[in-house]
Amino acid sequence: MNNKWSRRTFLAGTSSAFVGTGLIGQHTLFAQHAPKSGGNNRVRLGMIGCGIRACNMQHVFHNYITNEADITALADVNSERLGTLHKNLGSRPDTYSDFRKLLDDKSIDAVIIATPGHWHALAAIHACQAGKDVYLEKPVASRIGEGRAVINAARKYNRVIQIGTQQRMRETYQKAYDIVQSGVLGDISHVHAWDLQYFYPGPGRPADTTPPSELDWDTWIGPSPAVPYNINRYKNHYWFFDYGGGWQVDWAVHHYDFVNWAMGVTSPVAANGTGGTYVLDSNWQWPDTYDGCCEYGPGPIANKGFLMTFTYRGGNARLIEGTAHGKSFHGSNGTLVVSRQGYSLYSETRNGKKVMEEQCQDVSHTMGDLHFRATADRLRGLFKMMHKRETIGTIEDGHYASNPGHLMNIAWRVGRRIRWDAEKEEIIGDPEANALVTKEYRKPWALEV
Q1: In angstroms, rounded to a whole number, what is the distance separating the alpha carbons of residues 419 and 382?
Q2: pLDDT digits 0-9 by tens, 270-311
Q3: Which domains are delineated in the chain?
Q4: Contact in structure between 218 and 210 (CB atoms under 8 Å)
């Protein structure tokens, strides 16, 4: 099979793939722009955000996507990071301190958004309005309401948004999906996900300072409330209410995405969360030790519903089921444990006999470069649109994968169990909690679709 996709083939393939799905109307997914120079048919990409994830993307493009696309423009509010990535990319892309000017470049077909999470939604919406398709790093947004706004923008402007939940591309997870779907586990009543880190003794409580000269701090804050520069806010932004959702959102989206996919669900009916700062010395706002749960109603796999729990430890990395990041599906016949290292099946014993004796197996994989390969496949999913009527990991999938963590966090912040109306995307009978579904934007920024 020829895996080399030109820009022209991409445009033709995506248009035909989405006919009848409601994702495109009278327009093709990309505007038909002339190349900057010559007869270049490669997909032209802009990179918004030039931090660690962008550097990982550079590795992906250099080693795995050498013939399909070019990064032709970069944008970042940190001139040092912008300059470093510009230097490392041999193609010498155009550079911008304001991503909106990058979006004005009509020769750019699509953008990769690798900013901190509080910028994901607004950057994606602006990209849709500019006629660009989007590869959006997870999570979709820092609030549920923002995620819905991104979906609305994709529909309004006929854009495709691929989400960076690349675990679906791994053979391990595809096989684990088949196991859950097969029914061999019996009645699944509980799914447990976990992330374990050792951040002890913590980042400390540094004082606010003047931002470094290379950083436009006001623009980095963006739509969030104006606050003084603090190195932890900048470098550990996941752990602050205004910018991220802690590990239970920013990393655990990978878990929830797989649970939704395998169990055939999109939304819980209730959520709760408990935890606190018990071990780390830090000015982080999200807890360093955390347990959350989501309750799901009847679905195609668990016809009586099921409970999903999530555990995060930031000061003790003792493994669960041999892995720091994983999930287990507990059924009446047995248990499936799956992580990026592989999967295992364990049988229950009934009347002295193992119920799943023939199915039990332990399949392990070395990590190697699987993460980068999966990311490359995810990008090709954007380029090819998978030759189907849907992408693997659409914007809707990403939105629903982000929401369990957001809901558990809301419950933790208000200190009580909350009930969720998935159709209206509202918390039922709790105005205080429901106010946290969205957030107020700092002027002049506005969440306008």
Answers
A1: 35
A2: 999 999 999 999 999 999 999 999 999 999 999 999 999 999
A3: 7-168+378-397 (3.40.50.720), 171-370 (3.30.360.10)
A4: no
